From TrEMBL:
Biological source species: Paenibacillus glycanilyticus
PANTHER family assigned to the protein according to its UniProt record, in alphabetical order: ZINC-TYPE ALCOHOL DEHYDROGENASE-LIKE PROTEIN C16A3.02C (PTHR44013:SF1)
InterPro entries given in the database record: ADH-like_N (IPR013154), Chloroplast_QOR (IPR052733), ER (IPR020843), GroES-like_sf (IPR011032), NAD(P)-bd_dom_sf (IPR036291)
Protein name from the UniProt record: NADPH:quinone oxidoreductase
Enoyl reductase (ER) domain mapped to chain residues: 13-297
Length: 306
């Protein structure tokens, strides 16, 4: 049982998320991860960033929380969410979860919606009337990106497989593209923002589908993307953008998403659930690249479905 320091809270984890980033950190792929989180072995032995749970204990200097508070948030620096308990400083991005969200739904918000918020609001500065394409619109980030883009007044095109078109339509997408039938980079349409939420299409591939001042966003930091960012950073034309969204989060973002969720602006996008002792199976499923929403793990039977 971890013991909270004076400025920490101990959280009983009810739900956490397994993401492609968790799989990447486990594999140290791309290799630069080793320089940040351990050259020969992981600096932190317990993975997991996004979670929801209940404050069980607080350190003596903590003022923002008390035992019994139901919270959700992220631990982007030290991980540790794939466990029964985690201790984190009270100034970590943690906030009271939406009242109408289950623990699983709240954890899912931290996975998809927080990431989409940084890319669409902060990087793209999305404006009403802009045309936005979300590649991977049925995934955890993509599904929330569709919903956020609609909230900001954009005209949204969702790209997904044929089996997920109705789901993406229910998220509010104005237009749908089945990637197995149509290549959105060659259909003659232009977009102000192309958000590749699954890292499947490169900036050179998408460049001709952007307006003259359009922006390409991706969640995958490949060497090619980094070079594209350098090449376009000083240009007044089309740009390529990647950002480490998890390291730019704060309590204000969680408060904002809580408000939107409680107002009914978000639809949960949970794909599968696994118990904590099935986390390896959860990783295997995420690594197939075919998940359609959040992959949730729960720590105890009493947490399942909560």
């Amino acid at each position: 049982m971890p013991i909270p320091k004076d400025n920490e809270v101990r959280i009983k984890i009810h739900a956490a998320v397994v993401t492609p980033s968790d799989c990447a950190f486990r594999r140290a792929d791309p290799s630069f991860i080793r320089f940040m989180y351990g050259l020969r072995r992981p600096k932190y032995s317990i993975l997991g960033v996004e979670f929801a749970g209940e404050i069980e204990s607080v350190g003596k200097t903590v003022t923002a929380f008390q035992p019994g508070d139901q919270v959700y948030g992220i631990s982007p620096s030290s991980f540790g969410a794939h466990a029964e308990y985690v201790c984190l400083p009270e100034d970590t991005p943690i906030f009271r979860k939406p009242d109408n969200a289950t623990y699983e739904e709240a954890a899912g918000l931290c996975d998809g919606a927080l990431t989409a918020l940084i890319f669409l609001r902060d990087k793209a500065n999305l404006q009403p009337g802009q045309k936005v394409l979300i590649n991977g619109a049925s995934g955890a980030v993509g599904a929330y990106a569709v919903q956020l883009a609609k909230y900001y007044g954009a005209e949204v095109t969702g790209v997904c497989g044929s089996g997920n078109t109705e789901k993406v339509k229910s998220f509010g997408a104005d237009h749908l593209i089945d990637y197995t039938r149509v290549d959105f980079t060659r259909n003659g349409q232009l977009y102000d923002v192309i958000f590749d939420a699954v890292g499947k299409r490169s900036f050179p591939q998408c460049k001709d589908a952007l307006t003259p001042t359009g922006m390409y966003l991706t969640t995958v930091p490949s060497p090619g993307v980094m070079l594209d960012m350098l090449r376009t950073s000083r240009s007044s034309g089309k740009k390529a953008v990647f950002t480490a969204a998890g390291l730019q989060q704060n309590k204000a973002n969680l408060a904002f998403l809580k408000k939107l969720y409680e107002a009914g602006r978000f639809m949960p996008v949970i794909d599968r659930r696994y118990s904590l002792d099935q986390v390896a199976e959860a990783h295997k499923y995420v690594e197939t690249g075919h998940k359609a929403g959040n992959v949730i793990i729960y720590s105890t039977e009493e947490s399942a479905g909560c």
